[in-house]
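User: Second chain of the day. Same drill as before.
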Amino acid sequence: MFADTEAKVPEGVFEAFSSITLTDVLVFIVPFIAAVIIDLQSHRGSKEPVSLRDATMWSIIWILCSVAFGGYIWYSRGPEDGSLFAMGYVLEKALAVDNLFAFYLIFKSFGLTLHDTQHHQHRILYWGILGAIALRFVFLGFGALIVNVSPYVLIAFALVVLWTVMKMWTSGGDDDDEVDYTNHWSVRLVRGFSKTNPSIESGRFFFNGVTPLFLCLVCIEACDVVFAFDSMPVIVAVVKDPYLMITSSLWAAAGLRSLYFLLVAAQNLFWALDKAVMILLVFISFKLIFSGFGVHIPNWLSLSVVVLTLGSGILFSLLVPNPEDGEEKSEEKEEAKLEAPAKENG
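Assistant: Same format as last time:
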């Protein structure tokens, strides 16, 4: 009676996971967990802001760890899978740049960018990065499950990617109008059912109620849900293999804490990178649409587009001054001219 009404799992849903062996899991999970623990413990309890030197050192260490794992993929699975891992890693890092600047604005809203309060950023990012790792694991696992269900899934992913591009484009000119993240919906939600303590002097998340440190963490995690959802179809489109997409994304996500402190120190240096990322996302959306109709773009071509587009964005940033810097200087000169007569009359 109930045989006909049983829910059937669509064909091909779990097929992509069948090639993952216990050795694959252990080779990834053991060094990954060890590296995360060492990194997160490196500044635990410190009341000093993370220095540029430490951020640079840890960023290099994370890159070397990722390169070593990529070398294992290249050796054990071949150069094609090695290049796919590299693409997934580079894309996740590139997409993270704008997200990390959003984290900076969140910290700024909560008053955690001052010299006396900067050290709290590390503790919040400690838990924030763990959340980022968990979210990417969940979203990419889900993406790997449904990507083979129907070609329409790929087209739906393409629309999500184009929506991401539209958001990046429309928000590009809103730098001067900073969002007040202390009034973010996630913060209002927590305040609605919890007692709050406006002081951060305790350095704790909970002290006579919920402190601004916990509210800041909640806001970062809520925003990262959107970031993880946005990046999922991009990684799925390019990599597709579940083991490679999850491992490349998690290696990239694990190094975000160090990358954050590095980017904050050089936030105006790579001003054209977000434009390059937008161009790259448009390419990936078309790749998804073509895949939905059975047209496959070779991996070597995708890798070439990724490297050339991001490389051009970085090179252009280094060679050409940021136009906004020139506009700010012009505005400062105009203000100085207007203030000069007032001072003379005074």
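The CA atoms of residues 41 and 260 lie 17 Å apart.

User: Great, on to the next one.
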